[in-house]
């Protein structure tokens, strides 16, 4: 049976352990408060072939004002010899830049002191597809983030209405999309779609829908594994107006290395009486 002294002793030990745990927790919280991390607003961008694409990368600092100094940025591509881009010691350092990226890349130098190291890639080609790593180091901390760039071709269709038939014509799609027409009630309507491909393998798409009812609204959906273009088309008299927006698929068949890995830290309090 425990004596009064033993109970007091055990209580004291318990209190000491609880207070130690609290102090460790507070220290951990205040330390993580000054930590910085490198993040991207889009780690899975889909670039439109031939157009420019921004690869987003920036340093996010908690409670630290802008005005970073000693900023160094390196952009690399997995499997590539040399670099995509490098800025260090206050200047561009493109000596090791791979020829694939010569004259096609740009950093926003004015934005570097705010931690923005986003890279503009001009005239995206299919060979640009792959995993990029953006590394930042600065007076306010640093880190790295991986971005997986995918490429596709997509363009908004234009619409024509003649003799009761509504036609959607889109000049650039890759991979080959499918086309689905539906009415305001989301009922699928039978359309006729044909494709022609150019020498670069890019498809032009023509899809028609017959027996249109004037002053109705229709939806034309062009979709492949990467991009979906949704057009809302309103026919009024002989006028036809269409509005298109694009959505991009999230992870499809990506290498597992690009998936987020979560780390969980567990604090064990080991107490033996
Ligand atoms: C970084 O700069 C680019 C180019 O000015 C801009 O488009 C982008 O929104 C900026 N990103 C952040 C997080 O400020
Ligand atoms: C318009 O449609 C009508 C009936 O559907 C058809 O007889 C006529 O040939 C069509 N005209 C044209 C220019 O396609
Ligand atoms: C598709 O086109 C063919 C040939 O032009 C035509 O005979 C058929 O009726 C069309 N089908 C639909 C659903 O518009
Ligand atoms: C137009 O309206 C008629 C009658 O409501 C319907 O049968 C037809 O499917 C409609 N056409 C289209 C393209 O929705
Ligand atoms: C169209 O293509 C997408 C992506 O490849 C696919 O998920 C969808 O099932 C297809 N839809 C039709 C109606 O074939």
TrEMBL record:
Residues 50-150 form the Ig-like domain. GO terms for cellular component: external side of plasma membrane. One of its GO terms (molecular function) is signaling receptor binding. PROSITE patterns: IG_LIKE (PS50835). Keywords: Disulfide bond, Glycoprotein, Immunoglobulin domain, Membrane, Signal, Transmembrane, Transmembrane helix. It comes from the Eukaryota. The chain crosses the membrane at residues 7-31. It holds the Pfam family V-set. One of its GO terms (biological process) is T cell receptor signaling pathway. The keyword Glycoprotein applies. It is found in: Membrane. PANTHER family: BUTYROPHILIN, V-SET DOMAIN-CONTAINING T-CELL ACTIVATION INHIBITOR 1. This is Ig-like domain-containing protein. It comes from Etheostoma spectabile.
């Amino acid at each position: 049976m425990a004596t009064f002294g033993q109970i007091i002793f055990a209580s004291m030990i318990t209190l000491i352990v609880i207070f130690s745990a609290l102090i460790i927790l507070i220290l951990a919280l205040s330390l993580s408060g000054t930590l910085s991390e490198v993040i991207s607003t889009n780690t899975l961008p889909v670039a439109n072939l031939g157009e420019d694409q921004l690869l987003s990368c920036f340093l996010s600092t908690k409670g630290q004002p802008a005005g970073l100094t000693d900023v160094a940025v390196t952009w690399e591509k997995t499997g590539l010899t040399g670099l995509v881009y490098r800025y260090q010691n206050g200047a561009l350092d493109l000596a090791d830049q791979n020829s694939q990226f010569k004259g096609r890349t740009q950093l926003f130098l004015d934005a570097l002191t705010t931690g923005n190291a986003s890279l503009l890639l001009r005239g995206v080609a299919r060979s640009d597809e792959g995993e990029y790593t953006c590394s930042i180091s600065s007076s306010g901390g640093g880190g790295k983030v991986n971005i997986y760039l995918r490429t596709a071709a997509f363009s908004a269709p234009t619409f024509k209405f003649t003799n009761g038939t509504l036609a959607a014509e889109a000049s650039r799609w890759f991979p080959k999309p499918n086309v689905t027409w539906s009415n305001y009630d989301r009922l699928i309507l039978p359309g006729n779609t044909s494709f022609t491909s150019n020498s670069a393998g890019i498809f032009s798409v023509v899809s028609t829908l017959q027996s249109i009812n004037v002053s109705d609204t229709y939806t034309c959906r062009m979709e492949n594994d990467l991009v979906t273009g949704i057009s809302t088309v309103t026919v009024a008299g002989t006028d036809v107006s269409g509005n298109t927006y694009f959505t991009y698929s999230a992870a499809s068949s990506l290498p597992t290395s690009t998936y987020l890995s979560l780390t969980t830290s567990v604090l064990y309090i080991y107490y033996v009486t």
